[in-house]
Specification:
Blueprint lengths: L1 H6 L21 H17 L5 H33 L4 H49 L3 H5 L3 H14 L1 H28 L1 H8 L2 H36 L2 H10 L2 H53 L8 H42 L23 E8 L10 E8 L4 E5 L6 H6 L9 E6 L2 E2 L5 H7 E5 L9 H6 L7 H10 L3 H5 L18 H15 L3 E5 L7 H14 L4 E5 L11 E6 L2 E6 L1 H7 L2 H22 L1
Helix pairs in contact: 3-4, 3-7, 3-12, 4-6, 4-7, 6-9, 6-12, 7-8, 7-12, 9-11, 9-12, 11-12, 16-18, 18-19, 20-21
Length: about 625
């Protein structure tokens, strides 16, 4: 959801670290085979939507395979009937037929190769799209406990890693199987004895392929996991925020050493991957070079020692040509076995993410709720929530309150009291562990998530802007907004004049995370985005904390208009900004310890009174210091 993507920062009230991934127990051999069978079935299911094109591709492959058998027989005829008997007619005729067969075979090869790539790319598109959409639907808990670099590796590198298998394996294997079967038949028709000798080497191919494939699978998995580690580190340290931190603390050497260690580990895995390939193809090459020598020896023995006149020069040349034609697809079959076995690790990583359960999803009987229907009443009934299910003390403890439609509810308390966490439960960034959060007397768990995201809007202290134009950043809230609506929203947020003064106006690129804008400018742009969205329930999480006094006053005036007729939750950085709140909830250690209006709470002389007086003293000292300076 757009609201989730652009309005809320990572969990500010959560102090516990992200949970580590659990160690996976080592599978037995039988369990591994059973898991691989299930995995292979899931991979084959990816081809089902493209069955028609798969059948056409298979037909083109079979025609191409049969055409490939023609040249060896024509070579036999050219040598034995044409050259040996000096018959130019036979030589010319069979040479022409061979040329036509080769050209036709090349045409069909190009055709089924193109279709195979088309099938593969459609499958890869679907796989990437499903994975992206599934991750979009994951809760905030998933993203706060998973590094961005790891997610990117699964979505980009892992999917890219299986592309060759998906794009080429089906076509190649149908072709290779057809070539092997048809070639064996042709070789038996020429000479069964030479054929038995040739296929006697086949078990060596199988043994090599199985051994190398299992090792390649471990290497591929290790390579991708280490790639994820390196990507995560690069994403963390080479982002704008990461670079600012590194330069601020002056520890580029420390990060360079960390990168060197992780980079060295990846290099080690890549070396192993290259060794696997060289080992496999080196041994296959050795076998294919030995095979013709053995065939020539047996043919020579049959011809010289046994006087077998069926062994002709043309037949021997044609047979060795077929033998090469046999071993090449067999090598392809075994290299595909290696590729498939090693790619299973990548498919497994992709399916792991696709199989992640969504802890926040639509209820089977979820109801629609449009802004026109909504009054804006928000109620918490005995709400309990903890970021860590195993924590002894929950983050929020038995919260009970009601925000009537159109009320301004201020949330006050020390850092870590649970203010931001409370607001996360309204749009279901997290779900309460106990109790209910209700909007217009309907549990938020029973409202469609897509509708909920349109009902609730937020402006937070940390504004997220995408690396695109001002205009596109605004339209995230309302894609169909006209230029006039954008300008009106920005004028209301007191940011239009600044945008108009930029070299490209509303088409100006703001930079990664909006670093071309000041903190106050980003904040006002976020407020304009909220104005444009026009939600019925508004959350202001220290929305004016990054502004100077004059800008804050302008924004407060804009927000006052925006809050009319809306239920608003305001987490205030300056308590002086919430004096007119309809009710103030004072939180401490996840519990509401005081509630009431400003004057009532001051009179009680409790936590709110202490926080207010402390802040007024600080502001007075700052004012005195500024005037004396």
């Amino acid at each position: 959801m757009v609201w989730r993507a652009v309005t809320y920062r990572a969990v500010s009230d959560a102090s516990s670290p992200a949970p580590a991934s659990p160690e996976k127990p080592e599978m037995t051999k039988a369990e591994r085979k059973a898991a691989d069978r299930i995995l292979l079935r899931r991979i084959l299911e990816l081809f089902k939507p493209h069955l028609g094109m798969v059948l056409m591709t298979t037909g083109a492959v079979l025609v191409g395979v049969l055409l490939g058998l023609v040249p060896p027989y024509l070579i036999k005829s050219i040598i034995d009937e044409g050259i040996a008997k000096q018959d130019l007619g036979v030589i010319g005729r069979d040479s022409l037929w061979m040329l036509l067969a080769v050209l036709a075979g090349a045409g069909f090869t190009l055709l089924y190769g193109y279709w195979g790539v088309m099938i593969g790319q459609k499958i890869m598109f679907t796989l990437r799209q499903k994975l992206y959409e599934h991750l979009q639907g994951m809760s905030l808990r998933f993203f706060t406990s998973t590094r961005t670099g790891e997610i990117q590796t699964r979505l980009i590198s892992d999917v890219q890693g299986v592309q060759t298998v998906v794009s080429n394996t089906l076509v190649d294997q149908v072709s290779n199987i057809g070539i092997v079967i048809s070639t064996l038949i042709a070789m038996f028709l020429m000479d069964w004895r030479l054929t038995l000798l040739s296929i006697g080497l086949v078990p060596l191919f199988a043994v090599i392929g199985k051994g190398v494939g299992e090792f390649a699978r471990k290497v591929r998995q290790g390579t991708q996991e280490q790639t994820g580690e390196l990507n995560a580190m690069m994403q963390e340290t080479l982002s704008v925020s990461g670079i600012l931190l590194t330069k601020a603390v002056g520890r580029q050497d420390l990060l360079a050493n960390r990168f060197r260690v992780e980079n060295d580990k990846l290099a080690g895995w890549l070396i192993k991957s290259s060794v696997v390939q060289y080992l496999f193809f080196g041994m296959i090459r050795l076998i294919t070079q030995l095979a013709p020598a053995l065939v020539y020896w047996l043919a020579g023995w049959l011809l010289v020692a046994r006087g077998d006149t069926s062994i002709t020069v043309g037949m021997l040349v044609a047979f060795t040509g077929l033998q090469i034609r046999l071993y090449f697809p067999m090598t392809g079959l075994l290299s595909a076995q290696v590729e498939i076995l090693s790619s299973l690790a990548l498919f497994q990583r992709i399916f792991e993410y696709l199989d992640l359960p969504r802890d926040i999803k639509d209820h089977p009987k979820a109801v629609s709720m449009t802004p026109a229907q909504l009054k804006g009443k928000v109620e918490f009934r005995d709400v309990v929530f903890a970021y860590d299910p195993d924590a002894e003390t929950p983050t929020l403890k038995s919260l009970n309150f009601t925000a009537e439609p159109g009320q301004l509810v201020a949330l006050v308390g020390p850092s870590g009291a649970g203010k931001t966490t409370l607001t996360y439960l309204i749009p279901r960034l997290y779900d309460a562990d106990a109790g209910q959060v209700l909007i217009d007397d309907t549990d938020v768990k029973e409202i469609k998530l897509a509708d909920l995201s349109t009902l609730v809007g937020a402006v937070t202290q940390e504004t997220y802007l995408m690396h695109t134009s001002v205009k596109e950043n605004l339209r995230v809230a309302k894609p169909e907004a006209t230029d006039e609506e954008l300008i009106a929203a920005c004028k209301a947020a007191a940011i239009h004049d600044h945008i108009a003064g930029l070299e490209q106006g509303y088409d100006t690129i703001v930079g990664e995370r909006g670093y071309k804008l000041s903190g106050g400018e980003k904040q006002r742009l976020a407020i304009a985005r909220a104005i444009l969205k026009n939600p019925k329930i508004l959350i202001l999480d220290e929305a004016t904390s990054a502004l100077d006094t004059r800008s804050e006053r302008l924004i407060q005036e804009s927000l006052a208009g925006l809050m009319q007729g809306r239920t608003t939750f305001a987490i205030a950085h300056r308590l002086s900004t919430i004096l007119a709140a309809d009710q103030i909830l004072v939180l401490e250690k996840g519990a509401i310890v005081e509630r009431g209006r400003h004057a009532e709470l001051l009179a009680q002389g409790g936590l709110y009174s202490r926080l207010y007086n402390e802040q007024i003293s600080v502001e007075n000292r700052e004012a005195e210091s500024a005037s004396s300076g």
